[in-house]
Amino acid sequence: MQNINALVNTLQNGVAFVTFRKKDNSVREMTCTLQATRISYENKTTGERKRNDDVLVVWDMSKQQWRSMRKDSIMCWADVTSSYAQA
């Protein structure tokens, strides 16, 4: 597995294509980000969620929704920022 810190850095500064294994053991691919300028979301949550350091919460570029994955389920990822020109 590639370095999680490098993935988080890529997500904060651009876009990554991530392949991971879901709880039901199926494989999912997702193009995602944590870069604020790429997230079109208004935070309407009033409560705080319990932090879980084993989970990575990201913005799914295709579904335009927050998604999460367990860090230990990540199979591979790639920086695809150059494929997503910013408006």
Structural summary, described in words:
- The protein has 87 residues and is mostly beta strands.
- The chain has a single domain, classed as SH3 type barrels.
- It has one helix at 4-13, and strands at 15-21, 27-33, 55-60, 65-70, 74-79.
- Strands 4-3-2-1-5 form a 5-stranded antiparallel sheet, with helices on one face.
- A hairpin with a 5-residue loop joins strand 1 and strand 2.
- The mean pLDDT is 89.
Protein traits:
87 residues; mainly beta; SH3 type barrels; 5-stranded antiparallel beta sheet; 1 helix; 37% strand; globular
Strand content: 35-45%
Mean model confidence by pLDDT: 89
Overall spatial form:
globular
Q: What is the alpha-carbon Rg in Å? A: 13 Å
CATH architecture: Roll
| Tally of discrete structural domains | 1
CATH-defined fold name: SH3 type barrels
**Strand-pairing-aware structural class:** mainly beta
Total beta strand runs: 5
Question: Counting H and I runs of at least 4 residues, what is the number of helices?
Answer: 1
